[in-house]
Amino acid sequence: MRDTPHQTSAVTSSKTVARTDSTTVRVVQERLKELGYTEVGNPDGKMGKLTKTAILAFRNENDLPVSDIIDDGLLQALDGASLRNLPRNDAEPAAVRQAVPEVQSNFLTKVGAGTLAGTMATGSITDLASKAEGVRSFISPWKDMFGDIPSWPWLGCGALGRIDIHRSQIIVAAIQRQNLRDQQRH
User: Global pTM?
Assistant: First the structure.
């Protein structure tokens, strides 16, 4: 069931009235974001998956009944709420990478992109350096050996390397999620 900005309210029980008008949803989204519930996404006035996730997190952390609706209880709690205290604010980057698979994957993406950029930069610098007289004698044999290769194989090698890094990231993330599930069971 998809909520639209044109809905004004819906009765979910005899006492709880859900508020789904776009103005109320936007105000709640903005307040959740101010409090540190960044999972709410960008405030857009739409009651989507991200908004519901942030509402559930807020309710859970503030001992409110578990529900993903906007009601009077949620609005009152938001008015008096203080900033979210997350342990990750003081966490070391290595600890976060270890605990959160998405961060590990993002880290590996940056390493892969840096490696690829370094390779391309080296090629450009090598080309510029080959124009300098003192370096020409050192670079000439390498340039002669690899100079006849068109650019598309080099780009292909870079792309294959990136695909391999991405595949490794997916495997690492899956293993870390499984380890996290195993830890939570024990």
Answer: 0.44
Matching residue, tokens 């203080």 = 82
β-bridge pairing 9-11 and 17-19: antiparallel
Please name the residue ranges forming H helices in the chain. Answer: 22-34, 49-61, 72-80, 93-99, 101-129, 133-146, 151-185
**DSSP three-state, residue 9:** strand
Burial class (CB in 10 A: 0-12, 13-18, 19+), 53: middle
- C-alpha 1 chain-centroid distance: 26
Q: Which two tokens stand for residue 102?
A: 């998405």
Q: What is the tens place of the pLDDT at every residue in 54-111?
A: 999 999 989 999 999 999 999 999 999 998 877 666 677 777 666 666 666 677 777 7
Using one digit for the tens of pLDDT, what is the confidence trace for 26-49? Answer: 999 999 999 988 888 889 999 999
The pair of structure tokens assigned to 138 is 């050192």
Q: How many CB atoms lie within 10 A of CB 58?
A: 23
Q: How far is CA 165 from the centre of its chain?
A: 17
